[in-house]
């Protein structure tokens, strides 16, 4: 069993990010069984869930003529426009049926603000609006984070870098993540995480 100050954060293991989903990540379902096993080692287990209202501003379909995976400028900076995914209450937004959700004490939903995307479990993409995750972790006495899940180059990456910036000791188990890999985003994320002081394991 891990120490009481260690938390496992499982990022976005949802149907839409697994094969057959609206924003499928190659091999996204391969990491589920090992994540289930890893959850048993941790006293503090948190799941995140991408949770967008229909018509969310991060969807290409909300921007006239925009192609999925193109980039637009939002008031808070550049934003990739995604296929519609993880719409609140949809089957695509549900956790993959193979993921054991029972060991988790809390689910952090993110991306629910219609005008702002949220990759990180800690802050919306304005890098300012908190989700409450930091307070939850601190009040439970957590100082070390292990992060796994989908996608390595977006939500895992942003959560890990924000966690390190906030002063947590962060490890990403790369074998328990899969990437979207848009224009080299996987390598860029690995480099960025290392620069931020995130430990990459596996
Ligand atoms: C994610 C793109 C859009 C993720 C979420 O979970 O990495 N990526 N929404
Ligand atoms: Zn999303």
TrEMBL record:
Keyword DNA repair found: no
Key words, A-Z: Hydrolase, Metal-binding, Pyridine nucleotide biosynthesis
InterPro entries cross-referenced by the UniProt entry: Isochorismatase-like_dom (IPR000868), Isochorismatase-like_sf (IPR036380), Isochorismatase_Nicotinamidase (IPR052347)
Annotated pathway: Cofactor biosynthesis; nicotinate biosynthesis; nicotinate from nicotinamide: step 1/1
UniProt-recorded name of the protein: Nicotinamidase
EC assignment: 3.5.1.19
GO BP terms in the entry: pyridine nucleotide biosynthetic process
CDD domains: nicotinamidase
Top-tier EC class: hydrolase
Family: Belongs to the isochorismatase family.
Domain called Isochorismatase-like: residue spans: 7-198
Gene3D superfamilies the record matches: Isochorismatase-like (3.40.50.850)
Record-linked NCBIfam families: PRK11609.1
One GO MF term: nicotinamidase activity
């Amino acid at each position: 069993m891990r120490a009481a100050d260690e938390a496992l954060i499982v990022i976005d293991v949802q149907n839409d990010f697994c094969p057959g989903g609206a924003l499928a990540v190659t091999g996204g379902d391969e990491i589920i069984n090992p994540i289930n096993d890893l959850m048993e080692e941790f006293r503090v287990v948190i799941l995140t869930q991408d949770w967008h209202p229909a018509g969310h501003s991060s969807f290409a379909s909300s921007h006239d003529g925009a192609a999925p995976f193109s980039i637009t400028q939002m008031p808070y900076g550049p934003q990739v426009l995604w296929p519609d995914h993880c719409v609140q209450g949809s089957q695509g937004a549900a956790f993959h049926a193979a993921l054991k959700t029972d060991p988790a004490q809390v689910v952090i939903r993110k991306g629910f603000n219609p005008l702002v995307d949220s990759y990180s479990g800690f802050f919306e993409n304005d890098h300012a609006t908190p989700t409450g995750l930091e307070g939850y972790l601190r009040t439970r006495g957590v100082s070390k984070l292990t992060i796994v899940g989908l996608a390595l180059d977006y939500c895992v990456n942003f959560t890990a870098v924000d966690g390190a910036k906030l002063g947590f000791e962060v490890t990403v188990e790369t074998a328990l993540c899969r990437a979207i890999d848009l224009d080299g985003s996987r390598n860029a994320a690995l480099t960025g995480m290392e620069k931020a002081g995130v430990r990459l394991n596996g």
